[in-house]
């Protein structure tokens, strides 16, 4: 067989591509992000299929009726979940090649996009009787990794950064992969239904989780006119229970939670001795 070679017959048609994100609208960026994610999902599905073929009988067994069909469905769903999460970085590279910028959380999740920063919320807590609580050094070290995200969430949703930090410590001890017995997930322990409402695709992504949690906290603070205790009780037990009892519900867990968050907040606000 003769060797094949690629010959460019018209060099004018092969103009170097120089991406410029400034000329792209938000909707165009979102479409490019979707295409990039879909390509990564397809590629991942092909990889899983190839890996599955090396095992005897596949995931569901070749002797089972429809086993090959269920294998395909399983591979597709796994690939889709992977691509919608952090993925393997393929979508990021494709998107960057198309637009010239990194694939951001705001492009993937318009609901979390800081289109307009909200004014800072004036907070009242009437917490003279609640003592300061010192977090552990380990949890503070973990928390420090997310300072940039916390500052962005604070500026975007008008919630004091120390309140966000205190909620993170009370909810998850700043462990991004934490899962509670109630299946609340991530740093600010968001359940699946709330994550869906907030537009969070990957609840274990620290930026998505913190931005979403801060958004929800902002909504609660505005609902209760800046009353921090009511907002925290709503975050823990749901605003429906706060409305039902016209205040902090008589649940031991919720009452302890409110005191713990405010205790952490007092610790952050106390003047620190500098040696």
Structure description:
The protein has 275 residues and is mostly helical. It has 2 domains: 21-103, no CATH class; 137-269, Orthogonal Bundle (Lysozyme). Helix content is 55%, strand content 0%. It has helices at residues 26-52, 67-84, 90-99, 105-108, 137-144, 147-157, 161-172, 192-198, 206-223, 228-237, 239-245, 252-269. Helix 1 (26-52) packs across helix 2, helix 6 (147-157) runs parallel beside helix 9 and helix 10 (228-237) packs across helix 11 (239-245).
β content, as a range? under 5%
What value does the average pLDDT take? 78
CATH topology of the largest domain: Lysozyme
> How many angstroms separate the termini?
80 Å
Runs with pLDDT <50, length 5+? 3-8
Number of extended strands = 0
- Share in helix: 40-55%
H/E element string?
HHHHHHHHHHHH
Name the overall outline. Answer: elongated
Q: Which second-level CATH architecture of the largest domain applies? A: Orthogonal Bundle
Class computed from helices, strands and strand pairing: mainly alpha
Main β-sheet description: none
Alpha-carbon Rg, integer:
24 Å
Q: Which terms would index this structure?
A:
single chain; 275 residues; mainly alpha; Lysozyme; 2 domains; disordered N terminus
Helices and strands, with pairings:
Elements: H1 26-52, H2 67-84, H3 90-99, H4 105-108, H5 137-144, H6 147-157, H7 161-172, H8 192-198, H9 206-223, H10 228-237, H11 239-245, H12 252-269
Helix pairs in contact: 1-2, 1-3, 6-9, 7-12, 9-10, 10-11, 10-12
């Amino acid at each position: 067989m003769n060797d094949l070679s690629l010959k460019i017959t018209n060099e004018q048609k092969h103009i170097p591509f120089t991406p410029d994100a400034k000329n792209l609208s938000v909707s165009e960026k979102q479409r490019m992000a979707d295409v990039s994610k879909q390509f990564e999902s397809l590629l991942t599905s092909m990889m899983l299929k190839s890996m599955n073929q090396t095992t005897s009988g596949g995931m569901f067994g070749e002797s089972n009726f429809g086993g090959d069909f269920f294998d395909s469905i399983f591979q597709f769903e796994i690939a889709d979940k992977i691509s919608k999460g952090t993925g393997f970085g393929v979508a990021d590279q494709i998107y960057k090649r198309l637009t010239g910028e990194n694939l951001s959380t705001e492009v993937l999740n318009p609901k979390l996009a800081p289109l307009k920063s909200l004014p800072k919320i004036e907070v009242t807590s009437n917490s003279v009787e609640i003592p300061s609580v010192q977090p552990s050094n380990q949890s503070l070290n973990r928390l420090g990794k997310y300072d940039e995200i916390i500052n962005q969430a604070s500026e975007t949703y008008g919630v004091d950064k120390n309140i966000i930090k205190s909620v993170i410590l009370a909810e998850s001890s700043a462990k991004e992969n934490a899962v509670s017995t109630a299946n609340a997930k991530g740093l600010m322990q968001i359940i699946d239904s709330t994550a869906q409402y907030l537009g969070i695709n990957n609840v274990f992504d620290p930026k998505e989780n913190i931005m979403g949690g801060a958004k929800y906290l902002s909504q609660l603070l505005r609902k209760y006119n800046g009353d921090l205790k009511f907002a925290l009780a709503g975050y823990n037990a749901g605003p429906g229970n706060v409305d039902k009892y016209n205040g902090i519900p008589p649940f031991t867990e919720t009452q302890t939670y409110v005191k713990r968050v405010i205790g952490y907040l007092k610790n952050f606000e106390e003047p620190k001795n500098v040696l």
